[in-house]
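Lab notebook, bench 4. Still working through the backlog of constructs that have no structural model yet. Next entry is a single chain of 380 residues. Request: give me the structure tokens for it.
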Amino acid sequence: MEPQRKIIHIDMDAFYASVEQRDHPELRGKPVIVGGPPDSRGVVATCSYEARKFGIHSAMASSRAYRLCPQALFVRPRMEVYRQVSSQIRAIFEHYTDLIEPLSLDEAFLDLTMSDRQPNSATWIAREILERIHRETELTASAGVSYNKFLAKVASDCHKPAGLTVITPDQASDFIAQLPIRRFFGVGKVTEKKMLRLGITCGADLLKYPETELIRLFGKQGRFFYRIARGIDERPVVAHRQRKSIGNETTLSEDIRNRDQMLTILSALAEKIEGRLAHYQTSAYTITLKIKFSDFQQVTLSFTNDQPLKSADEMMAIATTLLQDSAAGERAVRLLGLTLSNLVSGHTSDPCGQLPLPFPGHSSTIAPSNHIEQPHKVYS
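Model written out:
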């Protein structure tokens, strides 16, 4: 019989903002927003817990965040510093296991199933990891411990900041039954609205539906919902995998026609992708803009640059042009996404020997604008 899996999900608390408060004592205890200044078309990358009390959250337009909290202090992102701290944290993880699956600069799964650490307790190890992170970086993190990735990730968000939540196999059924449906992996805003219309508000409601009915209602995703409602998630922690693309997308809570709003959302996606490119030490020649309209028709527009892309600014310079060449705005949009492909390790100019091809109808010499990674500055 296979041993019971022991999975830990570690999630740093308000990572970028916490690093800024650590490095700049004058920011401590104050509402801090990491992102573009309020008089720009920037977005919130992350914010401190003091700022979250005002309803501010990541991907929100900086101008709106300012209206919610005029006394907030806006700080330009310092990606290189965040990467350095992320490497410190990764080194702590490696002291306990080789099976580490990073999701971004500030979160990762760890598989301790076959660990030879003594005591061989995932809970004990998670507690020690949190203590070491705090001692070595002066930052806090939260952890979730369970027997699969779904439960471990949900658990890490239960008692933030600096929380540790354990869900044992015996506790899983009761925990899932009371879990709000929006907290389920794969349930975005649109899916949540559909489930609420069906009377599915929590795990106990989802459990009532047979698999065939969930597949009818939600397609192949329905099979996944059926399994996680029963605490079944066999996805492994993948330490090494060859990536063909890196991307991010978001389904909007309301259809929009305003292109400035669309650019704000795309900028937030580009910021996240930049962090992932840095983490995997890669760059990419091809960027693809994905648009789904209100009638569910989907289009993609791609561009292959003559130099590899690695920053959000470079992505947005091209994404802005692609958006202008689409019907977005004339038609209402419900989903936006960005994907980078044609990846190249490091930041060299040879993507595995494949020559970059220009996208028809577009120049490959679009100059990137200057937006992030400027010297640290606080805007009052």
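Notes after review: The chain has three domains: 1-167, 173-228, 245-367. DSSP finds 13 helices and 13 strands in the chain. Flag for follow-up if needed.
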